[in-house]
Amino acid sequence: MPGFELFGDIERKHLNDVLDNGVLMRYGFEGMRKGHWKAKELEAALCGRMQVKHAQLVSSGTAALTVALASAGVGAGDEVIMPVFTFVASFESLMAVGAVPVLVDIDETLTLDPAAVEKAITPRTRVVMPVHMCGSSAQLRELKAICEKHNLLLLEDACQAIGGTYEGKPLGSYGDMGCFSFDYVKTITCGEGGAVITNNPEYAKHADHYSDHGHDHSGNDRGAEQHPFLGYNYRISELHAAVGLAQLSRLDDFLEVQKKNYTVLRQALETIPEVIFRKVPEGAEENYSFLSFFLPDEATTRKGHKALGEAGVDGCFYWYDNNWHYIKKWEHLKQLKSLGKMPQEIVDGMRDYDKSDFPASDAIIGRTVSVLVKLSWSEEQLRERAEKMVKAIRGAIG
Ligand SMILES: *Cc1c(COP(=O)(O)O)cnc(C)c1O
User: Fold this and answer.
1) Domains, in order of start, for the chain
2) Is the pLDDT of residue 277 over 60?
3) DSSP tag of 212
């Protein structure tokens, strides 16, 4: 998925615009910037590409999730339902505002199981946070219906799925708010950066103020701004926004290459009847950043993953053993290992995940392998890769 593979002249041009005028800050300094407002331009471009009214750039995807939650007034003791398979940033962001992570099962889409979400709702639930893992959508229609029924916020973590769609809408634009990451390994990158998108003008205004110390951005005099509420510094710099602007303009080209490369690998694996592909919800289209598939059982999957590595197929993930992405190894979360004292609301609200089991998710993740789809492979490399993958997986199945 990495846009970092294809840096070029467009990135350099936008960066040089910023370096030439020297204004690295996204706000103010009108007189010096020679008309360059990279963050503002990127926000406008994101609105266009994602078909939403508002976009707020911030310093990371984690910051985007935090700002989104804060903007909707989510705070201490509120419960946020999220999947057991994601990246650690999902619970970090909500705990940063004092909210309690409520972890629930995934299904064969590798995203939230709507039935598990419904079961986890309590009077304290405020948010459902689906994570469009590995480039493909959660079951958004079902989740939206649950949110409407229980008056909950639907916040899409689309950090790994920019460019994917659901019922024709860009992922991130379907719920009340959506978040993207532009960190170094995402489909498009600016080094470090992120964005919140929404059609809700109130949330958008809050995100604008909250991500810049609560400044209300009124008028031209930064020193004279008011602070309707407390905020923080989650700003993006003009340097990062410049690279992001270039990368967003290339997103559709990247997606096309990803899809082409994904299709070659998928067609090769389709020759093995035991290989079942990750379920993509009806009406959804992936961004093709990963090819994810299931093998018949855990032992075969471990064998297959090992064989892929030994065959030199890089970028293959066995998430079940991965401590970034699956609950099984999130000891720091389960034991609330914090440097300081944890907010009491989190301590009180936290479920005992050492005792809870997620057998349904274990049975899925234990059989899942995901293969990173790169942009820069030559036809020759791609063909070789497909051959090696088929050989390794066939060998593992025996
Ligand atoms: C990368 C990622 C994030 C966080 O993004 P950063 O920009 O690295 O902070 C959040 N959620 C998911 C699913 C991610 O993959």
Assistant:
1) 3-250 (3.40.640.10), 252-397 (3.90.1150.10)
2) yes
3) B
Tokens, residue 158: 């689309």
Residue nearest to atom 7 of ligand 1 (CA): 61
- Which residue among 144, 186, 303, 334 is the active-site one? 186
Q: Is 205 a catalytic residue?
A: no
Q: How far apart are the first and last CA of the chain?
A: 31
Ligand 1 centroid vs 191 CA: distance in angstroms? Answer: 12
> Measured from the CB, is residue 176 less than 6 Å from ligand 1?
no
Q: Give the pLDDT of residue 354.
A: 79
13-59 pLDDT tens trace: 999 999 999 999 999 999 999 999 999 999 999 999 999 999 999 99
Cβ-based neighbour number of residue 354 at 10 Å: 8
Asked if 102 contacts 80 with a C-beta cutoff of 8 angstroms, the reply is yes
Q: Using a 6 Å cutoff on CB, does residue 326 contact ligand 1?
A: no
Contact indicator for 111, 136 with CB cutoff of 8 Å: yes
